[in-house]
Write a structure and sequence with these properties.
This protein folds into 2 domains: about 5-75, lambda repressor-like DNA-binding domains (434 Repressor (Amino-terminal Domain)), CATH 1.10.260.40; about 95-195, Jelly Rolls (Sandwich). Helices cover about 30% and strands about 25% of the residues. It has about 200 residues and is α+β, with helices and mostly antiparallel strands.
Length: about 200
């Protein structure tokens, strides 16, 4: 194999790995097991596993049923690596997903990719906004105030945190937060609990 052939093969292998990672990321986003997605797409578990690991190319006859099983356009599976699409390890700023919240004046955007052990969020709290009530759940959390100020209550202790301040505590402690200022507050918030597992007031 000459240099050009080797380069072409490497490019193909890299593309297979990117596509495989994308398929796995999309599967994890939808909380599907390997067996469930394989059944939906009409392919064997072994074939799907090889695609996800980048050991097999995504053939044309598989693209359509796999895309249908994932409820996406076929082009999303084979888009160029620079496009803002799902990835197993990275989340593009333009493709962050919103996390539903109950409280007024709070917005949460998911920063961590699917399958990540830690859940990273960008929490935006409008002036006067805050949690409806104190809540607790399993896990641990850490946060850093990126802009504005936030009043954080943990286990009945109140803290007023400003830009650059940070915090960490066990999620099993009752906690609540609100923005007492006149400007929007943004917090980088990391949690060991998955968004779908948290039942809270925010």
């Amino acid at each position: 194999m000459d240099v050009l052939d080797e380069a072409a093969q490497k490019s193909k292998d890299d593309a297979d790995v990117r596509v495989g990672r994308r398929v796995r990321a999309l599967r994890l986003e939808r909380h599907l097991s390997l067996a469930e997605l394989a059944a939906r797409a009409g392919v064997s578990i072994g074939a799907l596993s090889q695609i996800e690991r980048g050991m097999s190319s995504l053939r044309v006859k598989v693209i359509w049923p796999l895309a249908a099983a994932l409820d996406i356009e076929p082009s999303a599976l084979i888009a160029d690596g620079n496009d803002a699409v799902s990835d197993l390890y990275c989340v593009r700023a333009s493709s962050r997903r919103a996390i539903p919240v109950k409280s007024e004046g709070i917005a949460k955007a998911l920063l961590s990719p699917p399958g990540a052990t830690l859940t990273g969020m960008l929490v935006t709290v409008e002036a006067g906004g805050g949690t409806a009530e104190a809540y607790a759940h399993a896990g641990h959390e850490f946060g850093c105030v990126l802009a504005g100020e936030v009043e954080l209550v943990v286990d009945s202790t109140k803290y007023v945190l400003k830009t650059g301040d940070s915090f960490a505590f066990k999620s099993t402690l009752l906690h609540a937060f609100r923005n007492p200022g006149v400007e929007q507050c943004q917090i980088l918030w990391v949690n060991t609990t998955k968004p779908s597992e948290v039942r809270d007031g925010a």
